[in-house]
Design goal:
Elements: H1 6-29, E1 40-47, E2 59-65, E3 70-76, E4 89-94, E5 97-107, E6 110-118, H2 127-141
Length: 148
């Protein structure tokens, strides 16, 4: 597995901060809001490029944890990748299968593809529990047979 660069880690911190800035009020208004959680981008790894998909953009795949949900996200590996129109839908093939994503742009310089997998994290007791859940999700998503 290829290690992320310091710039990529910084961009993931920016992503979490932008998501919190854009979505903070609506997250707190949600009936599933869990005050023990924060927005965090976790467990990212470089997604191997698939030349058969016809796209030359490389992505980082990881988990976006919020006080409400857990999503699988793809972030361009390079900062210069042009963003799709927000709301654009697309399927991506990952090692465990095909997933439906929607393009989102939480800030002018931050965009991602997001596939929400769990829409209620109200039963989690801590950030550590959310982190373990994100790690298990990524282990399953990034394995060929879907088993960690």
């Amino acid at each position: 597995m290829q290690a992320l660069t310091p710039e990529q880690y910084e961009r993931l911190r920016d992503l979490a901060a932008a998501w919190q800035q854009q979505q903070g009020r609506s997250l707190k208004a949600s009936p599933q809001y869990n005050p023990r959680l924060t927005v965090d981008a976790l467990c990212f790894q470089v997604l191997p490029e698939d030349p058969s998909d016809g796209e030359d953009t490389a992505y980082l795949a990881g988990a976006l944890v919020t006080p409400v949900s857990l999503s699988l996200v793809l972030v361009p590996a390079e900062h210069s990748s042009p963003p799709p129109e927000p709301g654009t839908r697309r399927h991506f093939t990952l090692p465990s299968g095909r997933y439906p994503f929607i393009a989102e742009r939480p800030a002018t310089s931050v965009w991602l593809w997001r596939c929400e997998l769990i829409d209620d994290l109200s039963d989690l007791d801590s950030l550590q529990e959310a982190s373990r859940l994100a790690q298990r999700m990524m282990d399953k998503v990034m394995s060929v047979d879907g088993k960690a």
